[in-house]
Amino acid sequence: MGDAGRQFSFYAWWDWRFLFLLLFTTFVAYILGLSFARTGDPLVRKRLLRLSIVVDLGVLGFFKYFNFFADSAAHVSTALGLPVTYDALKIVLPVGISFYVFKTMSYTVDIYRGDQEPERDLLRFTTFVSFFPELVAGPIVRASRLLPQMKRDHPFDADRMISALVLIASGYVRKVVIADSLAPLVDARFNDPLSHSALSLLIGVYFYALQIYCDFSGYSNIAIGLARLLGFDLGINFDRPYWSRSFSEFWTRWHISLSSWLRDYLYVPLGGNRGGRRMTFRNLMITMLLGGLWHGAKWTFVAWGELHALYLVGERILAQPIGRMARALRIPRTVSSLILVVVVFHLTCLGWIFFRAGSFSRAWEIIHGIASLRGMSFDSVPQRFLIAKGIMLTGILMLFEAASFFSPPARPVLQRSIVRLSLVAACIWIVLMFGTFSGNSFIYFQF
To answer: Which active-site residues does the annotation give?
Structure first.
């Protein structure tokens, strides 16, 4: 079986039963791709596309949302005076299903559009779907990017190897040193918000924003670095999102593979920016609603998605008036950009409360606790040493990201192999000295 066999073995190591689900979605996409090539009849092609979408969404919907919708229907029925007894099936969510289903779906859609040639080599196609660095938690790499690379030889390249090691090492720093160090501080505040002061809860929200960022961007760096070791370029998945000056910019920097997927396969087919403001706003609301629901079967995820939709709609309405006001007040561009970064970051943190809280009541407890302003002194914050450590680590990360926007005179020196290998060694030392080895799994494994 070659590479595909090893990658299927990698997936089966978690739970061999769900290997058949991965094989099923892979073979359906492969057969439908070949079927597109055999017919030029537009009606048949549309039927094949519908079949592909129904199979992919059917698999994803059953395993990810069956209990969610059944439980919601039972609650609605009970509220209407028609009590229903419902015992959840306790369906286990197959690891990586959201990612490989989106890969196979985009593959068949691209063939239907004429943007992708069907892959005739079954082993190559199964290797593409099950490519182990990004199988379980992304990024969502499209066939147009990865399949051509699988048709080429990848001779050893020392520079590529070093850059891959830098990515992997920096990814572990983000995950083990920053995200895992912040995790227990975040859990303590989100699990029992009534026991914490306003400042303590606010710190917990800030730390969660940085925890999820470092956790997922760290995983992405590791996955992209592992692929680069093998000679494959998966692109980037995060690009300093918390420095965004608008929410449109934020979604070009955060989880880039998912946001671009939602744009190309949902927002644009719905009509995108065409049809006037009203239709644009509708398309944004639908896209972000489904983007929120993609993350999990909870209404809090839906609320998170719709909150971001409101942000995107609001900025389209307010962008020009705010720009005119800034020019009228002669606010320097640097100052206005900094203000926008702060505003976007804090509104993003508000959304993260719903994303992390797990229930609306818990989210309200956190928001109400912060808004009460009870206990805004640092003395009211427990675990102050660990909080100070978290502030130091995230502060260093943000300083490095801020510096990366500039082109320092020393940049050519930083590109030297010996310097980058020294950076890898420094990252390993930092992980060993400051890492938190608590066995926390990556956050996006649950999606």
So the answer is: 295
